[in-house]
Amino acid sequence: MHKFANPTQFMRIANAIYPWVAGICVLLFAAAIPIALMFSPPDYQQGETVRIMYIHVSSAWLMMMIYGIIAANSAMFLIWRHPMANLVARASAPMGAVFCALALITGMLWGQPMWGTFWVWDARLTSTLILFFLYIGYIALADAFEDSERGDKAAAILALVGSVNVPIIHFSVEWWNTLHQPSIIKASKEGVDSSVHSSILLPLFLMMGAFTMFYFALLVLRLRSELLAAKIRNARLSQIAGHSAAQPAE
Amino acid sequence: MAFENFAAFIDMGGYAAWVWTAYGLATVALVGMLVVSRRTLKARTREFEEMKANRK
């Protein structure tokens, strides 16, 4: 684990897997989109609106997974001061916010025709909205200080404190009686169990896979950007330090 | 195929506005993230190369 804290080592692996992740992502989308939109059957209760589910659940899965990644990396950054962990969290946060917004909006677009309302203040929807604010808070805090290290630390602490919200979102449909339907996929020791027919599960899994690969592919690109920004910042700082030592006054 | 013809596909069982808006927004969000991330990487790479060139 600790050897991945070295940015050079980390990026060597990340860059090596990048073409594979990007390629698998394209293939998964090429399979998922036509199956989700055309070849899968309509739901017997929800009709064609069930097709919204494929992107709604995929976005919701990503917003949860990315928050988990941010929280885990924030912990590694705070405990071991791994700079790479901090960059992974920083590069992920805007994507998490976008997927969270997408989950909320596609949920509304599904809720209005099926429930008769865009929004209810139930546990699932409210805790998801809180997750969105946590993402926005993280992004704002990370850039709020002149001294970027203080911002990184403050944002990492917020990410850790906010991680209590993730299990609340996950279990909200079981803990509280809500308008939101319960999970359709349940992982158990016997494997993945579901009450839903495979003709609907197949496009869902393909779409979730495509979204997941999309995140990891973009993460590599965004980490390259973050590392370049850090190099530029460090070079400027040493340049300023060098100049002021050589010529104290203009 | 779940639809009889192309018109039925576009109509989405009467839910066209909801289904297509959702897929449209998802497309905008994903393509947008891709474009912004690639543009940032290009700009940073250029900035870094220029900085290296100026130092020499």
Q: Summary?
A:
The complex is a heterodimer of chains A (250) and B (56). By secondary structure, chain A is mainly α.
Greatest interface (CB-CB under 8 A), with counts per chain:
A-B, 37 and 30 residues
Main beta sheet strand tally, sense and closure of chain A: 2 strands, antiparallel
* H/E series of chain A: HHHHHHEEH
Order of helices and strands of chain B: HH
Report strand % of chain A: under 5%
List the helices and strands and how they pair.
The complex is a heterodimer of chains A (250) and B (56).
Chain A lengths: L6 H33 L10 H31 L2 H33 L7 H20 L5 H15 L2 H11 L9 E4 L2 E4 L3 H49 L4
Antiparallel strand pairs in A: 1-2
Helix pairs in contact in A: 1-7, 2-3, 2-5, 2-7, 3-4, 3-7, 4-5, 4-6
Chain B lengths: L5 H6 L4 H40 L1
Description:
The complex is a heterodimer of chains A (about 250) and B (about 55). By secondary structure, chain A is mainly α. Chain A has one domain. In chain A, about 75% of the residues lie in helices and about 5% in strands. In chain A, a hairpin with a 2-residue loop joins strand 1 (about 185-190) and strand 2 (about 190-195). In chain A, helix 1 (about 5-40) runs antiparallel to helix 7 (about 200-245), helix 2 (about 50-80) packs parallel to helix 7 and helix 4 (about 125-140) packs antiparallel against helix 6 (about 165-175). The radius of gyration of chain A is 21 Å and the shape is globular. By secondary structure, chain B is an all-alpha fold. In chain B, about 80% of the residues lie in helices and about 0% in strands. Chain B has helices at about 5-10, 15-55. The longest helix of chain B is centred in the middle third of the chain and has 40 residues, at about 15-55. At the A-B interface, helix 1, helix 2, helix 3 and helix 7 of A face helix 2 of B.
